[in-house]
Design goal:
The chain is α/β, with parallel strands linked by helices and 347 residues long. Helices cover 44% and strands 15% of the residues. It has a 7-stranded mixed sheet, sandwiched between helices. It has a 3-stranded antiparallel sheet with strand order 8-10-9, covered by helices on one side. The protein is globular and about 55 Å long.
């Protein structure tokens, strides 16, 4: 399996599994309600404090998925009198949230501050403007140009939201995210969102930011009020995973090494990996049939590399997407590279 989001190799970690089992024993398999009513346990409160501390914000709030976290924050905070400018390769959940909130929204060219600047200057001024980007883009594996975006956000007095689904726990010396990685002040970003099912091997999503922001979302975000609370096992697993990341920094070292190995060898084999500079490595083929055919060749060799075709990517964007993880050893990596070499030049 070379397409798993388990970036830090934490699925199956004994301490994380034990924490989940213990939570079921103490709290059961469900909370029996939504967070605003009967669904909040001590575990939820502790996880949100841990997330805020790890991310370096005043507070955090959790949801049943990262998708719902994005829906919650955008629909609760923005509406028809505002405007949102979104990176053209932002996740579908962000687009859906803009549509649901009936906010005027537009896209700027992917990872292009000049295009964002043009949009900020050309569009009519609204009471509030929100810029939305991602820490690492899930289909291309490139890291956002956060310092440049922050500078534009300040110049045009906009708000900035960063979706860290694929950068939380992955980027930065301690895995704290794209701000740590690029040396940006965490407080320069107004809204952080993220996933608890990628580097964190559980389920759920979160929003992190100021205490006022989180307090407002607790009373205004529909997915918090009307959707079941995150189950105790997932909450406990996420909490324990944050502790493991802090106690086992070698996982990030291994991830960086494996990422560099795969990038270098796949490029040596003349595969197009785009502008990826993260553990997400696209094998860009452009044609749906070519992507499916290569995936099948690899599958016949015992390698699962997920093909990504329409509608997950635009026409002409077909690819395989593989991920480096901390759990991959040298023999595993060499087998993967050999599989790609054989599949490129089948005998």
């Amino acid at each position: 399996m070379v397409s798993s989001y388990d970036y830090l190799g934490l699925i199956g970690h004994s301490a994380i599994e034990s924490a989940a089992v213990q939570a079921i024993g103490q709290y059961g398999t469900s909370t029996g309600g939504v967070r605003l009513l009967t669904g909040t346990t001590e575990l939820h409160v502790r996880l949100e404090k841990d997330l805020a501390a790890f991310k370096g914000t005043e507070a955090a709030i959790t949801f049943s998925s990262g998708y719902l976290a994005n829906l919650a924050v955008i629909t609760a905070l923005f509406g028809p009198r505002d405007r949102i400018i979104v990176d053209s390769k932002a996740h579908r959940s962000i687009v859906e949230a803009c549509r649901l909130s009936h906010v005027p929204w537009d896209r700027f060219d992917h990872n292009a501050p000049a295009s964002l600047k043009e949009k900020l200057e050309r569009q009519p001024r609204s009471p509030r403007t929100l810029i939305i980007i991602e820490g690492v883009y899930s289909m291309d594996g490139d890291v956002c140009l956060l310092p440049e975006i922050v500078e534009l956000k300040k110049r045009y007095e906009a708000f900035l939201m960063v979706d860290e689904a694929h950068s939380f726990g992955v980027l930065g010396l301690r895995g704290r995210g794209v701000d740590e990685d690029l040396g940006v002040n965490t407080d320069d970003i107004d809204i952080w969102t993220g996933s608890l099912s990628k580097a964190i091997p559980a389920n759920g999503g979160f929003v992190a930011g100021s205490r006022d922001l989180i307090y407002f979302l607790q009373h205004a975000a529909a997915p918090f009020i009307f959707s079941a609370a995150l189950c105790p096992a997932a909450v406990a697993a996420a909490r324990e995973a944050i502790g493991v990341i802090e106690k086992e920094p070698e996982r990030l070292v291994n991830l960086r090494r494996n990422q560099a190995f795969l990038h270098a060898h796949l490029r040596d084999l003349k595969y197009d990996t785009g502008l990826s500079n993260s553990p997400i490595i696209p094998i860009i083929l452009r044609d749906d049939e070519k992507a499916l055919f290569l995936a099948r060749r690899l599958f016949d060799l015992g390698i699962i590399a997920t093909p990504i075709i329409r509608p997950a990517v635009s026409p002409g964007g077909a690819r395989l997407r593989i991920c480096a993880t901390a759990a991959q050893d040298q023999a595993f990596l060499e087998e993967v590279v050999a599989g790609f070499q054989i599949s490129r030049d089948p005998k």
